[in-house]
Amino acid sequence: MHDDRGIYTPVSASRRIIMDLMHEARQVPSIPVQRTINLKDLDSIRRLTDPRISWFAIFMKAFAVVAEDYPQLRRSLIRYPWTRFYDHPISICSVAIERQFENEPCLFFAHFRAPEKQTLVEIQDSLKRYKELPILSLGMYRRALSIGRLPTLLRRILWWSSLNFSGIKRAKRMGTFGITSYGALGAESLHPISPLTCTFNFGPISPDGTVSIKIIYDHRTLDGSEVARRLKNIEEVLMTLVRDELLHLASYPSGPKTTSSPDLINASTRQDLSHEIFNPNHDLTIKPASQKTHRLSFETD
């Protein structure tokens, strides 16, 4: 009598990208630092906004606003041809978006350029497009699939060179920080790993508004005390600048956006959202962002 046999399944292009990501992330000595905060008041306001702003958009903006005043959160370690640090002039947030592609749940990475210069509505609109537009209409997703189809050796060389030689290319291709969370599923990732210097993570928000936020950081580049102070700053931004913007949205649902400057207007076009009909000859190069930044002052200790 013959034993039942299973089946072999080829590894998809998108899954190869995750394998490469984990290969690089294992080489980063990362450590999590956690802070518990209460968002009950913020959540009450958020529920009145139209459109409803996701926690991903809220935390993304808060982190980026803090990073404007603290370049350590935009810093990366460049190892070749000599070891040095690079501070990118703006934040670029990398978010993993789960999509269904070719009968398989896949993770694609979406980039948000200068979220500190965008309104919450603009960030939320971009998140929605990354989640809903056809996958092949988005340049970043097409590029990821193209890279995933390359032989393993070529992919690993591409990852290694992108992370270790040029700070500018590293920021544009990989982002300056990432955000991840399973909070909506009632779960929390204890120590997600990433090749980026900082990854922001938050858990489920309890009925009383309590939530744990953490930054997983590359200890070669940052120290824990620095990260702990920045978590405090993020809480302060959430309770001031972000709260005020949510109050404005709650007071004027579906009304005029708070965008008033060319920097904010142009920021929404710096995401790779590619509304055009798919063109196989489309230029997949990520355009450089404006060098201009604005700063916000607040107490750090």
Cα-to-Cα separation, first versus last residue: 73 Å
The proportion of residues in beta strands is 15-25%
Our count of domains comes out at 1
Write down the Rg. Answer: 20 Å
Description of the structure:
This protein has 301 residues and is of the alpha/beta class. It has a single domain, classed as Chloramphenicol acetyltransferase-like domain (Chloramphenicol Acetyltransferase). Helices cover 38% and strands 18% of the residues. The protein has helices at 13-25, 40-46, 55-69, 120-132, 139-148, 152-164, 167-174, 224-251, 262-267, and strands spanning 30-38, 75-78, 84-87, 92-101, 104-113, 177-180, 198-202, 210-218. It has a 6-stranded mixed β-sheet with strand order 1-8-7-6-4-5, sandwiched between helices. The protein has a two-stranded antiparallel sheet with strand order 2-3. β2 (75-78) and β3 (84-87) form a beta hairpin. α1 crosses α5 (139-148) and α1 crosses α6 (152-164). It is globular. The protein starts with 12 loop residues before the first helix and ends in a 34-residue tail after the last helix.
Summarize the structure.
The protein is α/β, with parallel strands linked by helices and 301 residues long. It has one domain (13-254): Chloramphenicol Acetyltransferase (2-Layer Sandwich).
